[in-house]
Design a protein that fits this description.
Distance between the termini: 42 Å
Structural class: alpha+beta
Strand content: 25-35%
Radius of gyration: 19 Å
Largest sheet: 6 strands, mixed
Shape: globular
Order of helices and strands: HHEHEEEEEEEEE
Number of helices: 3
Strand order of the largest sheet: 1-2-4-3-6-5
Number of strands: 10
């Protein structure tokens, strides 16, 4: 019996998709001197090694687009999700092996795109270097929002016949209700970084919700991760 793992698209395919989505090297972007390979944090430009985060992007091709942890009903236990989780664990375990022992998680925050929901999760004791990390999936901007898994917010995985909890969702924004009570909250987020060691990270979901044919926009209360 053979299993098919998630394959990586070619570099040419990635570049073509990226050009379609983000106007790669558009004349106006070049004229303004914007570096499209950098993610900038508005902190006055000071370098600080006490805060680390990981951004997991979307390959933009086919179905190769899934977060390693999510409680969305169609993705939480999908083979592609488990494959991405496995490969990411390999990467983080390799990083952890090259640095001094840490008294805190390897990464302070993981930001992950997913077009069908907003999901704030935290991993538990996974046995790997992705343990005890906050994960924010955002998310929630696609045509079809999806519901959270009916079994609840706890994410489990099975290995060698043993099932264990590896993560838990603490906030989920997606499709709820039916018919006249159907709600579809589309979302983005803002991350505020306060001084400290480690810095205090406050995530604020920004929501535009369609309910009963009307659109309303609001900021939810921020929470510290």
């Amino acid at each position: 019996m053979s299993s098919k793992l998630v394959t990586e698209p070619s570099v040419e395919t990635k570049i073509r998709k990226m050009q379609q989505r983000v106007r790669w090297q558009h004349p106006q972007i070049v004229e303004r001197g914007i570096d499209q390979t950098c993610l900038v944090i508005e902190d006055g430009g000071a370098d600080d090694d006490i805060f680390s985060f990981l951004v997991i992007g979307d390959s933009g091709t086919g179905r190769h687009r899934t977060p390693p942890y999510v409680s969305e009903t169609t993705k939480w236990s999908q083979g592609q999700t488990l494959a991405v989780r496995h490969h990411l664990r390999q990467v983080l375990d390799a990083v952890a092996a090259q640095i001094q022992p840490q008294t805190r998680p390897l990464v302070d925050l993981v930001l992950n795109g997913h077009a069908h929901c907003f999901d704030y999760l935290r991993t538990g004791a996974t046995g790997h270097s992705d343990a005890h990390i906050p994960w924010v999936i955002c998310g929630g901007s696609g045509y079809s929002l999806r519901r959270q898994r009916e079994a609840g917010p706890v994410i489990t995985e099975t290995s060698l016949g043993n099932t264990r909890a590896v993560a838990k969702s603490h906030l989920y924004l997606g499709r709820t209700g039916d018919g006249s009570t159907l709600k579809r909250p589309y979302s983005a987020l803002r991350v505020d970084v306060a001084s400290g060691q480690p810095p205090q990270l406050t995530v604020t979901p920004l929501v535009a919700e369609k309910y009963d044919g009307q659109w309303t926009s609001y900021d939810m209360e921020g929470f510290v991760v």
